[in-house]
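User: Please predict the structure of the protein below. I'd like the answer in structure-token form so I can feed it into my own downstream comparison script.

Assistant: Understood. Taking the following sequence of 196 residues as input:
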Amino acid sequence: MSERESYVTRKTKETEINVTLDLDGEGIYWIHTGIPFFDHMVQLLAKHSYVNLELTARGDLAVDGHHTVEDAGICLGQAIKKSLGDKTGINRFGHAVVPMDEALALVAVDLGGRGFLAFDAPMPSPRVGDFDTELVEEFLRAVAINGELNLHVRLLAGKNTHHIIEAIFKALACSLKEAVAKGGREGIPSTKGTLI
């Protein structure tokens, strides 16, 4: 077991979420939420950030996917925060610009302990398959707030909604990979001496 591994669970009347996260992984994943398109996006996130991630969710999908997606984001954010510990030696910052065919997404992250999402990525279509595209922003907000990370997402180009969302998740993965990496230095990357 890695020293940067965590387990988070959340059970409400609406959802039951379990997340196991290893920041020093190889991109191995097991994702099952009952929402196939969302599963695919979270798989991309794990694969391209080189974290090992197990995320299972049971939710009130008969209502819609909102509670399941948001609560998955809450638990993933908490797992990121927990796995980082006191953040000694991490790079702290990460950014990426990732294309997916005609779509181009920019994502930047700061693991500085201040949860915030800036999201500027209009979705041309309200749905991709059975997935409500407005839930991308809800998921990312839940990750950012609960992971206490500053997250900026901006769509630079794109017409196809599937491509746009995929570019965003891949850019997030690359940004997180850079930010959580140990930079070969000691200490906390802050003049305050803490990132908690």
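That's the full token string. The chain is about 35% helix and 30% strand.
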